[in-house]
Amino acid sequence: MIDWIAIFSNAAQELISPTTAAYALAALGLAIHFGYTGLLNFGQAGFMALGAYGFAISTLSFGFPVWASVLVGVGASVIFALILGIPTLRLRADYLAIVTIAAAEILRLVFTTNTFDSLTGSASGLQGYKGGFADLNPIPPGTYGFGPFTYNAYDWWIRIVGWTLVIVFALLTWLIIRSPWGRVIKGIREDEDAVRALGKNVYSYKMQSLILGGVYGTLAGMIFVLPRAVVPANYQTSLTFFIYAILLLGGAATILGPIVGSMIFWVLLSFFSGFMARAVEAGWFPFMTQVQAGQLRFILVGIAIMLIVVFRPQGIFGNKKELAFVK
Amino acid sequence: MEPTQTVARRSRGRWLILFGILLSALTLSGIAASPAMAEAGSAATTEAEEFEYFFVGNVTFDDKPLRGVEISVEGNGYDAETETDAEGKWRLGVPEKGEYKLTLNEDTLPEGVVVKEGQSTVDAEFGLTKLKAVNFFLGEGQRTTTDIGAQVLIRVINGLNFGLLLALAAIGLSLIFGTTGLSNFAHAEMITFGGLMVLTFGVDLALPIWLAIIIAIVLSAALGFTLDATIWKPLRRRGVGLIPLMIVSIGLSLALRYTYQFFYGGATRQLPGATIPSDIHLGPVTLSWIDVASMATSIVVLAAFAFFLLRTRIGKATRAVSDNPSLAAASGIDVDRVIRIVWIAGGALAGLSGILWAYFRPGVSWDMGFQILLLVFAAVTLGGLGTAFGALVGSIIVGLFIELSTLWLPSDMKYVGALIVLILVLLFRPQGILGRRERIG
């Protein structure tokens, strides 16, 4: 018999899990890049890796306090954005795509190599950097919550910080997109030459957008590693593609889209893999092994990306008039 | 015993001075004194407390002392290392009497100086004294273990082999981009498909390998045709933009890749003959006949494809469409037919590239194409997007660069160099080596 309650409660937990928050924030950054400015950043995984490693290495190797470690990560991603942007932002959109995807892979390979093992922990990654963050926790030790949402003090602390960041940055995004700055970057998305004709420095605006969205990705990378360890294999190109799936699902040029998209993505993914695992166990699909059932969900993510782009390019919340890819 | 006494006397003098400082310091402030005392105390005792037994030596070459040469000692559960001083002298203490291995680190010797062969590590044992002199015999010459010329030659041949197989995939990718504007991320899965089909027919169904390879290439061509007919052609008809098309290809790539994993599992499996010994000797280079056959196949296929593009009617039409689709359509070229042929040819070339890649790695796995996808993109961008011969030049540069970079980069970072070169080229010549200015928009 299938344990439906366990499947549903596991899926429900994903609603507020820190991973969902991290993906939502990373997707929000990508919304600034892709949805509002029309920049094809395929290196969001690289920005997230910089956040994770910047935070963990400054804490472990240099003993920095939490705020300084966060600043190191953010600083690293600003520099990374400048390096990416300077050669490519003057070129056509797909050049930025190739360079960002290549740069994110360079970062992952550098973090994986044995050469810098003493700093990065090479393929096995880093852990033990959470002490400073846990010490800031004002919640007294204990277990809180109800139903499926029952966690200890540290788990609640991660969730509170993660989702507070998501809300704060969603509000910030909403404000800046309504501002004159936001109108300019939306103009760049629609027609770069028209904006240039109005005397705006398109290159500089694109660079600011790249840096801002990259910083979102970096902070998301930090939330992402608080409930787990830093492992370089997590920052493969697929991570960027999953964030694109979330962004397209919710709507690329929206504020709520990335957040709700992330919730839907993770709840459905958890529900589907929980259901498949138990159904295979119960012998409903005799031609499939447990491992195969686990891989099915990635096939579905791929198919979902294709279908959304073709049949509902504006996503759930988007407005068809405001498409990131008009050309 | 003479030197020990001087040390002791000197340190007693130091203690007296320290005592004076201590007294004055105590009258000023009691707190500041304690760390200073601890530090001075330990400095004074190290010389006296160190081990009883010593290895000593003198490293000179042509009667000149060599400075900064690393010597290490190992044995009886102890190890340590030191460097020679300005007079070429070194001294290493060990905790107990016994047999030790002493090693001179050849990398720290100046250029042109080597240790006599096989004598960089010496076994030494204490006699009746507590001091044992150990000498290393140095001579003039080059270390022959890694002859740099031969290394370069081996890397160049490997790089050419890798570059040629990249070129097979890159030409297809570049022509698809040129004719349809699509940056096809699913090209990686077309590469993997070739390897997987040879695995299916050559290993699982145990057909002769040449037949399996032919079947795999035919099926790869069919895959190219099918993808175009079922996905890309309808999307072109709908007028879907280029960036959505690119994202669709990413989704397709994910779906296909995990479908492969679903059916073939996560393991790496070998094709027949992939692990045969390298028994063809050309000077310092040893190759297996698979390597030779792989390079020969690439060269023949690339030459045939070049002939097709340059000399045949349909090849010329392909280049025309790749150059300017609307102009080509206006001059009466059947653009749809050309695109179909490009997809079929691109599929077959990618499949062949996957088979050769499976022998080069060696091994077939579900994500083998995805591992080189970025290198293929790098090659296409380097050569100039949309140009077939640019893709060839770019691939060979990428292949050579990756293999040659292992001379100074650790091998797990060899792809890093190639990707950095990609970014640098975009900085200085964004249209690529053979590309034209107007394409970069």
Explain what the structure shows:
The complex is a heterodimer of chains A (327) and B (441). Chain A is mostly helical and 327 residues long. Chain A has a domain at 18-235. Helix content of chain A is 70%, strand content 2%. Chain A has 14 helices and 2 strands. Chain A has a two-stranded antiparallel ribbon. Chain B has helices at 2-28, 33-49, 148-180, 187-204, 209-238, 242-264, 289-311, 313-323, 325-330, 335-360, 368-383, 388-405, 414-428; strands spanning 53-58, 60-61, 64-65, 70-75, 78-83, 89-94, 99-104, 113-115, 121-125, 131-133, 138-140, 280-282, 285-287. Residues 1-49 of chain B have low confidence and may be disordered. The termini of chain B are far apart. A 4-stranded antiparallel β-sheet of chain B has the order 5-4-7-9, with no helix packed on it. A 3-stranded mixed β-sheet of chain B has the order 6-1-10, with no helix packed on it. The longest helix of chain B has 33 residues, at 148-180. Helices cover 60% and strands 12% of the residues of chain B. Chain B has 13 helices and 13 strands. With 441 residues, chain B is α+β, with helices and mostly antiparallel strands. In chain B, helix 4 (187-204) runs antiparallel to helix 5, helix 8 packs across helix 10 and helix 11 (368-383) packs across helix 12 (388-405). Chain B has 2 domains: 52-145, Sandwich (Immunoglobulin-like), CATH 2.60.40.10; 148-440, Orthogonal Bundle (ABC transporter involved in vitamin B12 uptake, BtuC), CATH 1.10.3470. At the A-B interface, helix 4, helix 5, helix 12 and helix 14 of A face helix 5, helix 6, helix 11 and helix 13 of B.
